[in-house]
Amino acid sequence: MATLVLLRHGESDWNAKGLFTGWVDVRLSPAGEAEARRGGQLLVEAGLRPDVVHTSVLSRAIQTANLALEAADLLWLPVRRSWRLNERHYGALQGKNKAQTREEFGEEQFMLWRRSYDTPPPPIADDDEYSQVNDPRYATLPPELMPRTECLKDVVHRMLPYWYDSIVPDLASGRTVLVVAHGNSLRALVKHLDDISDEAIAKLNIPTGIPLRYELDDDFKPLVKGGEYLDPEAAEVAIQAVANQGR
Ligand SMILES: O=C(O)[C@@H](CO)OP(=O)(O)O
């Protein structure tokens, strides 16, 4: 048996403004910083002490991990980071307002881009102000792996090698693992863990800043499907808020 804790970063400035974010390196809002600290307190209250932490290479996840670990007096923990835990690349929608996009393209297209399993948004141009092609943190990424857009299926495919090669070995050695990442990279991981169908995953939303705990069996599959949010009531409200973005 192994314990895995998933934590979506706290609210970012662009979450607050209702903008598609993806790989744009937006920071936490003051409310998001408070959520991250609360996430750390929830770990303490639940008696959960991670042994190792994995984050994306985006600042909002890194800030969240730091604030949560500080609140739990665990800043000393080993941390590893990978682009494979990044938010879904939102293509040409990065920087666009969600409500305006929904108005311009209609509900069906908006939801297809936002939540369908295999329809990516149009790709972002390399000279777009919100492109990451010249971002130094991806300088060593092979060019053929650098996305210009992604659907959730693409995220599953680029996230799973990290799950199997880096996170599962930590779990297998008996460590409690904390993964601090993003709405859609965590949807990809939850889809894999809970065997959620391509259709049903459209309805799954992950709240910001509330740890989600999974106890895993020897095959690294959940003993209880869906895991357990450490603050289930707050999670329910926050899940609805994510689902309703753009409305
Ligand atoms: O904008 C984004 O990158 C994501 C997460 O904030 O949004 P959504 O929930 O619409 O996929």
Automatic annotation (TrEMBL):
Substrate binds at residues 8-15, 21-22, 60, 87-90, 98, 114-115, 183-184. Catalyzes the interconversion of 2-phosphoglycerate and 3-phosphoglycerate. Pathway: Carbohydrate degradation; glycolysis; pyruvate from D-glyceraldehyde 3-phosphate: step 3/5. Pfam families: His_Phos_1. GO terms for biological process: gluconeogenesis; glycolytic process. Its EC number is 5.4.2.11. This is 2,3-bisphosphoglycerate-dependent phosphoglycerate mutase. The keyword Membrane does not apply. Keywords: Gluconeogenesis, Glycolysis, Isomerase. PROSITE patterns: PG_MUTASE. It is an enzyme of class 5 (isomerase). It catalyses: (2R)-2-phosphoglycerate = (2R)-3-phosphoglycerate. The active site is at 9 (tele-phosphohistidine intermediate), 87 (proton donor/acceptor). GO terms for molecular function: phosphoglycerate mutase activity. The record marks 182 as: Transition state stabilizer. Belongs to the phosphoglycerate mutase family. BPG-dependent PGAM subfamily.
